[in-house]
Amino acid sequence: MVTQVDPGDAPARRWVLHVDLDQFIAAVEVLRRPELAGLPVVVGGRGDPTERAVVSTASYEAREHGVHSGMPLRLAARKCPDAVFLPVDAPVYDAASAEVMATLKAVPGAVVQVLGWDEAFVGIETDDPWAVARSIQAAVLERTDLHCSVGVGDSTVRAKIATDFGKPRGVFELTRDNWSEVMGHRPTTALWGVGSRIAARLAAHGIQTVHDLATADEAVLVSEFGPSMGPHYKRLGRGTGTTTVDDTPWVARAHGRETTYQTDLVDPREISDALGLLAEQVVEDIRREERACMRVHLKVRFAPFFTTTRIRKLAEPTFDAAVIAATALDLLVGLGDDRPIRLLGVRAEMVPPEGGYDPPRTVGRGGPPAR
DNA sequence: TCTGGGGTCCTAGGACCC
DNA sequence: TCTGGGGTCCTAGGACCC
């Protein structure tokens, strides 16, 4: 099922809501350890801040000390020595996430597109999207004890961006009526899908703000980013990206495992064993889904920090871990680089289902559950 | 401080075929 | 001797998100 926002001038009746749990992982951990409430909590890796790992989520108390997602745990420990460090416990977050999503799907008339553990789009036809947003917050809190913020928009991009302005525990509305006022003066990185690299390329053409991008010469964007991404970025600048909320169950395109080693790998035997282990994990995962591996992706990070990937299509789709491991090893040897290895990843690109993927590939952010 | 692990999608360019 | 277009398939690499 798909809902479409009315693009015309009539008052919109269909809305896109973006629901985003507040500090989701940290909040779930506090729920099962109430004594942690109000303390700086940092969840990441195996919970040992002396290891090579990064922060998955920090509680607001920890964020006040400058700790944020993606930061190395060691640095987080320096910035906030009193923080409680906890290991990532994915099954617990899966369960909590499922409760949240079930709550959203129970909203009458809602079409729910899951974006990750802690966020989803909700497409809905209503006269009062704020009332729906408030009722969603209340229902989620009642059922899961978790707080969320809601972005209300007339497109997915606007709803998604609106949520940040509502955090924590709030609601914010972003539509074509206030888009320019709220977003126009902000840097292009404020947009969903524009990171530092794209922003730098835009800046080289004098495009600094969202307003600059919205009014940019499309020919310039096409020459810089190509016929597909160029117009896509212009649409982002205007906030008029896709308007559909699609609850088609997501079918993964690929599945992989990667590991950062606590001590760098140098011994060839050790390296080959590591690839074998990763391949076995990948096969176990894809066998569960009954999806054979079609291509092998090798990812390797040499110390100190050079990362590269290699791909090879297999002659035959396979579930054979030995074939996958041997292919990955062959790709690695082909690099002819004997520096110490800090990370290895093996990814299986899987045979597409009959008739291809639905939804098909699209420009911009497609919608996989990111976790 | 020394940078995780899980994903998706786009573009460029070479090889190859007609 | 040099070289047309058009198409597909494949790999490498970049960029982004949570």
List the helices and strands and how they pair.
Blueprint: E1 2-4, E2 14-21, H1 24-32, E3 41-43, E4 57-58, H2 60-63, H3 73-79, E5 84-86, H4 90-105, E6 111-116, E7 119-125, H5 129-144, E8 148-153, H6 156-166, E9 171-174, H7 179-183, H8 196-203, H9 210-214, H10 218-238, E10 244-246, E11 254-265, H11 268-289, E12 293-302, E13 306-318, H12 321-335, E14 341-350
Parallel strand pairs: 3-5, 8-9
Antiparallel strand pairs: 1-10, 2-7, 2-8, 3-4, 6-7, 11-14, 12-13, 12-14
Helix pairs in contact: 4-5, 11-12
The protein binds a DNA duplex (18 and 18 nucleotides) through α3, α8, α10, β11 and β13.
Describe this structure in words.
The chain is α+β, with helices and mostly antiparallel strands. It is built from twelve helices and 14 strands. It has a five-stranded mixed beta sheet. A four-stranded antiparallel beta sheet has the order 11-14-12-13, with helices on one face. The chain has a three-stranded mixed beta sheet with strand order 4-3-5. The relative contact order is 0.11. The model is unreliable at 364-371 (pLDDT under 50). It binds a DNA duplex (18 and 18 nucleotides) through helix 3, helix 8, helix 10, strand 11 and strand 13. Pfam families: IMS, IMS_C. Residues 16-195 form the UmuC domain. It catalyses: DNA(n) + a 2'-deoxyribonucleoside 5'-triphosphate = DNA(n+1) + diphosphate.
